[in-house]
Specification:
The protein has 16 helices and 24 strands. The chain is globular.
């Protein structure tokens, strides 16, 4: 059984063997009045010596057709072979040429890799029947970037706009949804724009669903029935309309089902239950026991968030709102925020902004300044003010956790803890393990004979990290029970008694959860008025397929 799991895992992670680097993929879709479209892909990348060609499967076409492929490499046009591409020819034969391989359910767009090094490809092809006519609207649901690409793009932007004179696309006549990636989709300046906010991976994909008011197009392809049925199918298993951030389980499940089937899903469940939750590339091992009592990673919350988010084997291991709450708690502990009683209720607290931000990282300072902006002229953050600000400014709020993770990655790189991107040195793995061991300690410290230090400053950091781990309330209660005098001293240092301090810890967590939840709910608008993409959903799409890249 171990051999079976090893083989399956090797198949899933085979991408690691390739070294092509797709830095940016910019896709422009110019849609004609009859629903056809000219698609232009601009690939900015570095090519390795492996493989002979680059290919993109485009399947699930139904009544659509694809053709008229042309490619330029660093501005030099390639020779088009039409439908006479030969995948078995050498790299030298394929260099400077492009062509199409027709399949039973679609086609593969192919072109030669050329010499190793930097390449800028401009790939153009024509899709007929992209926008199709339904009884109630004109619409499409199309996959522009496939899952299963070993060399997934670091950044993708898809811009869809009209190639003819028509009423400007706005939310009055155009509704949009996106699936399969971290990022957002919006209608702006008369175009639909979908863009990733972090690197795509093997299980990522980019699907856009767009519904147009009747009268903009005169589609050549008529489907009949309801366009809303197309959208409803895409919305199944999506996060649109939910209050909580979506997770990657649907995408991970897609790859697992494709390669390993139900046995691998069982393996994931068993491995998680037994504690084998962590990536060996980050931690050096998959199961991390034991305790660590010191503050890990130099107390850097960004580094901790990166470790938790990117080091988990089976999806992100911490909700995004936890790091927001951790920063609020740290600002309170450091005196940058003063906790004040709410004159309207003894069950609430307010926050007074007292300090400047000279010592803050710019990503941290943005969060601080947003909360200050929500507080208004009196500089006092009162009931629901940050929640309302987050709803109104959902794009900033929902993008902030990705920025925090990116800043954490920079911390690891600057420390010299990376052998390569996402793979830590031995010392880096040890530092990452200390974070999980520290979480184990905070969860279980009541069992320790030695217990914890009575140092007030250390306990402030303990509670901040407990907030990041999502266990602050539990740790605070145990802390108060075991060390009542120290707990009282910590509370007094923030201007509160112990009871109000305990409530404040819980309130900080709830406030950050509500604020980020409001932003996600606004971003994931089920009515199609733009915002965050959904990680799940997207079913019933046209185009796309599985895989692609170098071969």
């Amino acid at each position: 059984m171990k051999r079976l799991f090893a083989l399956v895992a090797a198949a899933v992670l085979c991408a690691a063997a390739f070294a092509h680097e797709v830095r940016d993929l910019d896709i422009n879709v110019a849609v004609n009045k009859d629903g056809s479209a000219v698609v232009t892909q601009r690939w900015s990348m570095r090519v390795d010596s492996e493989n002979t060609e680059w290919y993109i499967p485009v399947e699930n076409l139904g009544p659509m057709t694809i053709g008229s492929l042309s490619v330029t490499d660093n501005g030099v046009p390639m020779q088009s072979l039409g439908d006479k591409w030969d995948v078995d020819r050498s790299r030298s034969w394929k260099t400077g040429k492009c062509g199409i391989v027709r399949k039973r359910n679609g086609a593969e767009l192919c072109w030669g890799l050329g010499e190793p090094g930097a390449h800028n490809w401009e790939v153009t092809f024509v899709l007929t029947g992209l926008v199709q006519a339904y009884d109630d609207a004109d619409a499409f649901n199309f996959m522009f970037v496939n899952p299963g690409m070993p060399d997934a793009p670091e950044h993708v932007r898809v811009t869809i706009g009209p190639a003819f004179d028509c009423p400007q696309w706005t939310y009055d006549n155009t509704r949009v949804w996106a699936f399969g990636f971290y990022g957002d989709i919006n209608v702006k300046d008369g175009k639909v724009v979908a863009e990733t906010s972090e690197s795509m991976d093997y299980s990522s994909k980019l699907i856009t669903a767009v519904k147009f008011e009747k009268g903009i197009f005169q589609p050549a392809v008529s489907k009949g029935g309801s366009a809303q049925d197309l959208i409803d199918k895409a919305l199944e298993d999506s996060s649109y309309g939910e209050d909580d951030p979506a997770e990657k389980w649907f995408l991970i499940g897609f790859a697992l089902l494709f390669i390993g089937g139900i046995f691998l899903i069982i393996y994931v469940a068993i491995a998680s239950a037994l504690g084998y939750k962590w990536k060996k590339s980050i931690f050096g091992r998959t199961k991390i026991d034991g305790w660590y009592r010191d503050i890990p990673l130099d107390g850097n919350l960004f580094a901790a968030e990166y470790t938790l988010a990117k080091g988990a084997r089976f999806g992100n291991n911490t909700p995004a709102q936890n790091i927001i709450g951790a920063f609020f708690l740290r600002w309170i502990m450091d005196g940058k925020l003063k906790v004040m009683p709410d004159p309207k209720s003894d069950k609430r607290v307010n926050l007074l902004f007292e300090a400047d931000t000279a010592s803050m990282d710019d990503v941290e300072e943005d969060l601080y300044q947003w909360a200050l902006s929500a507080a208004g002229d009196n500089r006092i953050l009162e009931k629901n003010e940050f929640e309302k600000w987050s709803t109104k400014n959902y794009k900033k709020m929902t993008a902030w956790p990705d920025r925090a993770i990116a800043r954490g990655k920079t911390w690891f790189r600057d420390k010299g803890y990376f052998l390569s991107e996402g793979t830590c040195t031995t010392e880096g793995q040890q530092q990452a393990c200390h974070l999980i061991e520290f979480r184990n300690f905070l969860k279980d410290f009541t069992l320790s004979g030695e217990r914890a230090s009575n140092e007030v400053g250390l306990w402030k950091d303990y509670l901040v990290f407990a907030q990041l781990f999502g266990i602050a309330e539990k740790v605070a209660k145990q802390f108060k029970k075991l060390y009542p005098s120290v707990y009282e001293e910590v509370a007094r240092s923030t201007g509160m008694d112990s009871d109000r301090f305990t409530y404040m810890v819980l309130w900080t967590n709830n406030m950050s959860t509500r604020s980020f939840g409001n932003a996600i709910a606004k971003a994931g608008n089920i009515n199609g008025t733009g915002g965050h993409a959904s990680f799940g959903g997207g079913g019933g799409f046209s185009g796309g397929g599985f895989g692609g890249g170098g071969r």
